[in-house]
Amino acid sequence: MELHGARAIVTGGASGIGAACVLQLRAAGARVVSLDLDDAPDSDRSLRVDVADEDAVVAAVHEASEYLGGLDIAVLSAGIGGSSPLLELSTREWDRVLAVNLRGAFVSLRECALAMIAGGPRAHGAVIVAVTSISGSSSERLMAHYAVSKAGLAQLVRTAARELGVNGIRVNAVAPGTTETPMFAATERLPGYREQVTRRAALGRLGTAADVAQAVVALCTLDWVTGQVVAADGGISLHSPIDPQEPLEATDG
What we know:
Blueprint (H helix, E strand, L loop, with lengths): L6 E5 L4 H12 L3 E6 L8 E4 L5 H15 L4 E4 L14 H28 L7 E6 L12 H21 L4 E8 L2 E2 L12 H8 L6 E2 H13 L7 E4 L12 H7 L2
């Protein structure tokens, strides 16, 4: 897909990975509408939307598509985090995270796909990219609700890719690892956590929102890729708890 002149919606476009996607898409020549609780000053237009509110999402996608004159790209980046031991996790907190990360993503995907189809077939098709997480395929403690929401989103992406391909819509996902975002800032209360994850990343640093946005934008341009979940995590998901070299490195010197 040629990004110059493309028409895009980014949910969660006011901060973190979503804001970086807005910047990079616009730098490539796309016009971008942000759907977020807050304004996104770098977008062409901001619509204040809670993605957990179905009626608000339906109305906002319609308004954004009307403003853009159609829809070619949708980036589903809106998401929230949470931390709680499983036995202390309330159903209210469970529902809060799932309502945004999974239900909100589903409604956004559905409405964006309908807007794409309504615009008629295009030579380059259309594309939806969701932001999941490597937590959706691992088992970190204290994050059951977050991990389940991201695992569900990854499966939604794969299913949507099969169903929407006939309409010329590609559906993929980018799964970040530890990334410098406002959500990650909450880990500052965990002594040594930042240093630990930095050591375990194959590339030896934390990711940035711009790093992840590069992967999102790249997927927008790949016309023969669909139904994939691409890890953009600096190699932290390569870490193995049974790596035989780890104890040797710990005793060096």
